Fold Protein HGH1 homolog.
Amino acid sequence: MLSEVEAKELLSFLTLDTRPDVKGQATEYILGLSGNRDGCRYLQTKPDFLKALVTLTTDPSIAIVKDYCYHSLINLSADETMHQPLIKDSDFLPMLFKNLLDPEFMFADRICTILTNLSRHVKTCKEVFKAMQKQEIDLAQIVDICCTEGYNKQASLHYLGPLLSNLTQLPETRHFILDKERCVVQRLLPYTQYQASTIRRGGVIGTLRNCCFDHAHHEWLLSDAVDILPFLLLPLAGPEEMSDEENEGLPVDLQYLPEDKEREEDPDIRKMLIETMILLTATKVGRQILKAKNVYAIMREFHNWEKEPHVATACEKLIQVLIGDEPEPDMENLLEVEIPEDVEVKLKDMDAKEQEQLEKDQEDLLNPDKSQQCAGIVRMM
């Protein structure tokens, strides 16, 4: 890494007044540091470099702002150890939100990506939410932008989906989205089949899944006022023929599907959809409705089709609930059941072994050269 003398010299080049070619080389060097673990650890100890990067996002050179400054900040925000140093800069989060709300800001997609990275973990997610409140930015504005096609002509803003999903880790965010008077959930539901972006589609489904942890709202979510079930089931349904009796038991939107009906292409999204329904079966009313709506028939055909082990396992768990007996009267709400400590340890051990086997099975199925990107973490080199 740089000596103190070299670091001081490099920092002197990271200013708005520096000659463009020198400034370009200096910011390019920072980008290189941000792309690896050791470089991030080094920058973690150099708050002046981080402040200089934030300042240079206002540089007149689009290349420096786009190709170096924002790319560096995206890489740094993808490293969890950099979260606190970044949010400690009092100008950083306010700058991000100000630019995100500007419909003319050409780098808004990079803003979305940074905010998504920063909000992955609850601790910094709270800081992101607090920054929104300080600037009097309410969640309604974020939802409005997310649901407005072409809000920014120079940015797709697809990462607003994962940002919303991350924010719903917080009870206050879920409370807003589940407010019966606001109709936020109803606005988000069509995005479960949003074909223009897997990122936005997955983010919205993650948002719905997180909201289903609040079991008091299950009956409302499954009622005609929201009717969440068809939006969760339809992406998992295929073209298989069913008997008239089975079709009649399904929600109307799931009956007699065409021969060219295709399922959700992304396995992680398929799993999230199933996990959302598993959460809904945690309450008695949820189990009753999913059974009455013949969800089992769709999931039976889905299980026969699914090739990804981790998704098939989630499907099996849902099917077991749908065809199983009802729990004892004092255990009807599975989200409130207290599990003895020794049983919890055994269950966690079983889950770990199951996950290990699933990962092994998946490795056998995947091309060894194929790499996967962690959801919600974005790096740019």
Q: What stands out?
A: Confidence is low (pLDDT under 50) at residues 365-375. The longest helix spans residues 341-365. The CA atoms of residues 54 and 359 lie 39 Å apart.
